[in-house]
Amino acid sequence: MIDLKLFRTDTTNSGMTEVMPRLAEVEADVQGLVEEHMETLLGVRFLASEYSTGPVHGGRIDSLGLDENGSPVIVEYKRGMDAGVINQGLFYLAWLMDHRAEFDHLVRDRLGVTAASQVLWSGPRLICIAGDFTRYDVHAVREHRRSIDLVRYRLFGSDLLGLETVASVSGGMQMARRARRQSVAQAAADVHGAEMTELAGAVDAVLLGLGDGVNRVERKTYRAYQRLRNFACLCPPQRSKLLVYLKVNPRDVDPVPGFTRDVSGLGHHGTGDLEVQLRTLRDVERAQELFRASYAAA
C-alpha cells in the first residue's frame, strides 16, 4: 500500500488530483474508526473498547470482538510502526485464554446466549493494525502458533481508509497441510464415495491456492476459508452436490439455474449471499472466477 497511488478525477480541469496517503494524528483516531465499522472492515462484531485485564495484569485491550466463525478476536492499534505491538497483543491473548468464562459472559451480555454458546476457543485471533511493520515483525508472527494478522493502514484525504494485510498466520485454525482433506472431504468419502471425495478435495485445493494468507476454520456445519474475513464457506456434501457460499454480490452475477443462487435473507450455514452448487469437477472450473472475485473482495 505504501507504493499505491490514489488519484481523484478533476472534472472541472479535465485532470487528475493525487490523494496523498497519511497516518492518523493519534492512535485513538484509527481505533475509533475501526471500532465504529469493525464488522464491515474486519468481519468482526465489536464487543468492547479499552477492556481492562484487571489489577494483576494491569493492562487494557484496545478492542475485543467476535469474528464470523465465532472466534474471539483481540485488535491492537499503533499509529505508526511499533515493535511492541505483537508482543503486547500476544500478552493479552494469553490473558484471554485464561479468562474464557469472562469473555463468554461479555459475549452473552452484548450478543446473546446463542452467540456465547458458539464461541470457537480453538481459534482465538490477534489482529494488529499499524502504520507499518518490519520484516522482523513478519518473521516473528510466522514463528508463533497463534492466529495473527498484521494489517497496515493508510488514510487518504478526509474520507478514505485503506487496509492491507501484510502477514497472516493461521495458528490453530488451519489444519496441517497433510490433513487438508480429512474433514469435509472425509465426510464425503464416508457417505458418497470417491467422486465426492475428489470434488471436495478439488474445491479445497482451489480455495487454498488463491493466494497467501488463506486460513481455514473448521465448524461443525461448514468449513470457512478466510482472508482476514471469510470469503468462502464449504458445507458438507449433500447426496449429489457440494454447496459453497461466497462473499460476492448476487446482483452482480447472472443466475444460472442449478449452479448459482441468490440466498440473501435465506437461512444457511456459513456466510455469504451467493450459493454455488457443485456436482462435477467441471463445475469447480466454472466457479473459479467467482472464487477469485470473492477472494479479492475479502
Shape: globular
Poorly predicted runs:
173-181
Cα end-to-end separation: 16 Å
Biggest sheet details: 7 strands, mixed
How would you classify the helix and strand content by structural class? alpha+beta
> Helical segment tally?
9
Name the quaternary structure.
Answer: single chain
Task: Describe the protein.
With 298 residues, the chain is an alpha+beta fold. It has 9 helices and 15 strands. The chain has helices at residues 27-36, 38-42, 54-57, 85-98, 100-111, 113-117, 135-142, 184-208, 281-297; strands at residues 6-10, 15-19, 21-22, 44-52, 60-67, 72-78, 125-130, 147-156, 160-169, 215-218, 223-227, 229-234, 242-246, 260-262, 274-278. Strands 3, 4, 5, 6, 7, 8 and 9 form a 7-stranded mixed sheet that branches. A 6-stranded antiparallel sheet has the order 10-11-12-13-15-14, with helices on one face. A two-stranded antiparallel sheet has the order 1-2. Helix 8 (184-208) crosses helix 9.
What is the element layout, followed by pairings?
Layout: E1 6-10, E2 15-19, E3 21-22, H1 27-36, H2 38-42, E4 44-52, H3 54-57, E5 60-67, E6 72-78, H4 85-98, H5 100-111, H6 113-117, E7 125-130, H7 135-142, E8 147-156, E9 160-169, H8 184-208, E10 215-218, E11 223-227, E12 229-234, E13 242-246, E14 260-262, E15 274-278, H9 281-297
Parallel strand pairs: 6-7, 7-8
Antiparallel strand pairs: 1-2, 3-8, 4-5, 5-6, 8-9, 10-11, 11-12, 12-13, 13-15, 14-15
